[in-house]
Write the structure tokens for this entry.
Amino acid sequence: MSDTFQLEIVTPEKKVVDTAATEVQIPGENGYLGILPGHAPLITELAVGEITFHTGAEAQRLAVAWGFAEVLPDKVTILAETAERPSEIDADRARKAKERAEQRLTSGDTNVDVERSLNALHKAETRLEVAEKR
């Protein structure tokens, strides 16, 4: 069995990652999944969160939001709505998005879409966390 697998992370706009990896952690809809070479096949829905993958001793991080992951013993393909490297994240914009989501959630307005606001808050918080780990 190989010590690596091929990792591809793709958004509608571009291929973000295409590399050999030794490990990847992905935010599944029901919690994080750790994937190593030879993992049993599965398909899972992605949640908002951080993908961490290792290429040898180096760990890389991405902020992702929604999508699907297909895991095969020798390849992991992630189709994400968004995937951003720390260097691509505009921290000021993420902070403002977080503030807007918090204001909507604490406004007391009964017309606020709470689920959408919580998703926006979680996405902004994830983007800030990943940006800080540069």
The chain has a mean pLDDT of 93. The chain has two helices and eight strands. Residues 5-84 form a domain with the ATP Synthase; domain 1 fold (CATH 2.60.15.10). The helical segments are 91-106, 114-132.
